[in-house]
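Lab notes, practical 5.
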Amino acid sequence: MTDATITSAPELIRAAPELPDLLPPVKLRGGILGFVRRHPAIAVGGALVLAMVLIAVFAPYLGTVDPTALAPTRRTREPSAAFWFGTDMLGRDVYSRVLYGARVSLTVGFSVALLASLAGLIIGLVSGFVRWSDGIIMRVMDGMMSIPPILLAIRGSGGNVIIAITIADIPRVSRLVRAVVLSLREQPYVDAAIAAGTRTPMIILRHILPNTVAPMTVQATYVCASAMIVEAILSFIGAGTPPTIPSWGNIMAEGRALWQVKPYIVFFPAVFLSVTVLAVNLLGDGLRDALDPRMAKRL
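Output from the prediction step:
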């Protein structure tokens, strides 16, 4: 082999030509700004919910006073620099009562959403997949839906309100999960698991449960918003939290007698309740669009 052959050998090696891309490269918008552009409802709703949670947690450090302290000499004062939201007919600071009332509404909403979702998930999975139990469980759910929450919360304590609203919302969550399970159990991969001898609990855990998480998460946000409204209604009519505990429903109930002359007593808790419910609903709508591939328009 000559030197010319040796020196020209590397020149004979050529890299394969690059093939053209069949599809254009996917450009992902990263960072917080990109997330806000892709999911504006989640961003706005989540920010408002986070703000309300922070207000409830840090209420003692936001310029508040004792929300139950009475001061008859300062009753029904208009909003001012000294009393940002004014005072009620007993001289209590409305600003402090509204901020502390966020704790009650958020606690009830989150607790009901968590308890109703867990109970409804278990009941819906069993009812939808175990055929012989479907009729029995659904009739029990029909009976639970016929019980008004006010009858269960009549004793007027925070725990009773949570239990009452949870019992009323469990059938709704279980019916949603059951409907999803009924469509999933007819899928080929479920039939293949049954044919392979997989036990029913393992089929539910591996193949059914993961596919029910997304719709149940969205439903949980609506349950949370509904629970806060129901708690305010029960407190407004005197069947919810005790009057000694500041809640948005109690504040509006105490100010309804002076609505025409002192509307601020009802206005401020009503605004906080409306904003919180709107934020939770926006969060639920955003999660629905993000978790449902059929609703996705772009990456």
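Observations recorded by the TA: The domain at 42-69+84-291 is CATH 1.10.3720.10 (MetI-like fold). The chain has one domain: 42-69+84-291.
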